Amino acid sequence: MTVITDRPVPVDPQSQSRLRERGLEYRLIDMDDPADGAGFLRADARGFLDENPTEAELAQMRETMRTRRNIGVFDPDAGSWPIATVNGWVTPLTVPGAELPMWAISSVTVAGTHRRRGIARCLLEGELRAAAAAGVAVAGLTASEATIYSRYGFGPAIPVARLTIDTVRAGWAGGPVAGRVLYADKPTLAADLETLHEAARGDRSGQIAGWRGRWTRMAGLAEGDKQAAAVRGIRYLDVDGAVRGAMAYTLSELPDHFRSELKIRMMIATDDEALRALWQFVLQHDLVARAVVDQRPVDDPLPWLVADQRAVTVEVHDHGWLRLLDVPASLTARTYRAALDTVLDVHDPLGIAGGRWRVRVDDSGTCRVSVSDAPAEVEMSIVELSAIYAGAVPAAQLAAAGRVRGTEEAVAALSAAFLTAPAPLLGIWY
Ligand SMILES: CC(C)(COP(=O)(O)OP(=O)(O)OC[C@H]1O[C@@H](n2cnc3c(N)ncnc32)[C@H](O)[C@@H]1OP(=O)(O)O)[C@@H](O)C(=O)NCCC(=O)NCCS
């Protein structure tokens, strides 16, 4: 993939001048400056209702944030911490048949004293314009609330499943497992999760690269993690002794039960047998009555691993949100499952990525896009195109909702081309 360095990208001049008109300074944070970095991290924690971080927590967070382009908004009357924060970094996004650079956005906060005055809008639009100006074709984020980001053109593109299992009732109906499951200490667990995620993330559309601080946190090694003492880990070794799976989890006693809930923090397997082994460990754990996990793919084999499918509750919910910034570049970056020849009209209220194109996919799944002035066969806004992009959401479903317009044939052809298998996944929060 093309490597784009995000660090030197300057702040967006439009957002800078809009905020300056209100007496606010919008600028890059110097994470190597102790006061500037700490102010950003403390404001970020305050925005997400976390406790004020200790010096040890700040030192750990700084390691991650150094790799990002951090921005603060400062009010001269409001002390030295920024009153709003955001950051972005460029990370590979897996799409069908390929990966492409994605501008990931996180740490979106506006201080309680400054909310509902349009500051978040300046932050988000600023990130999107900066990313587009840097030549990045797609932006992504995970959202604290599902109603915030469509107004900026993001679509919920990568749904995931939250699974709750009554392990007393579930039983086992899965195939055999030949390797071994062993406990892992926390440093080993963190290293396994990192290596396995890197090995597996190319297998499913929607995945992005992880980072060291994410795996350290999952393994219970992060400063300030109140659950840290409860974190345990296992690894699965195949018959040749190669590590193919790992899981971080906690156990907590259910009230009045003398049985516990097993909460999976992270479960990664690079093949089906490894995944079966991890699930078998969960389902057959003594003194556990319930297991819970989130951010699993919607086609997780779990319902077919248990003897009683009614022991499994599956809740599918939005998780990965995408926003196309360059339609030809993002559409040609992925492959497709069926041939297509259509004229697509895309409306973008922010004026970043709209236009009309002829989109042709040949029998090998390769896509070509050219500007067109022919009548559109399918019309949608950038939200809907971003939602179908990763291959999880059928265009026909959005057409049934009245959000994609076109003939039944054109919409069906779009669904057939865009949908992908296995189901897209974003296995981490950011
Ligand atoms: C979400 C947050 C950043 C919004 O900041 P803000 O400066 O108040 O937002 P703005 O004034 O720019 O509002 C922009 C739009 O978003 C809407 N909006 C703002 N916060 C919202 C929320 N929590 N839920 C739904 N819509 C919201 C506003 O109504 C406004 O709508 P409009 O464009 O139709 O007028 C802020 O409330 C916050 O810091 N929340 C806690 C941290 C958080 O959840 N961050 C998001 C992480 S994914």
What does this 3D model show about the protein?
With 430 residues, the protein is α+β, with helices and mostly antiparallel strands. The chain has 3 domains: 13-153, 3-Layer(aba) Sandwich (Aminopeptidase); 161-317, Gcn5-related N-acetyltransferase (GNAT) (Aminopeptidase, 3-Layer(aba) Sandwich), CATH 3.40.630.30; 326-418, SCP2 sterol-binding domain (Nonspecific Lipid-transfer Protein, Chain A). 28% of the residues lie in helices and 31% in strands. The protein contains 13 helices and 17 strands. Strands 1-2-3-4-5-12-6-11-10-9-8-7 form a 12-stranded mixed β-sheet, with helices on both faces. Helix 6 crosses helix 7 (212-218). The radius of gyration is 23 Å and the shape is globular. The two termini are 22 Å apart. The mean pLDDT is 97.
Summarize the entry for a quick read.
The protein is built from 13 helices and 17 strands. By secondary structure, it is α+β, with helices and mostly antiparallel strands. Helix 1 packs antiparallel against helix 4 (119-133).
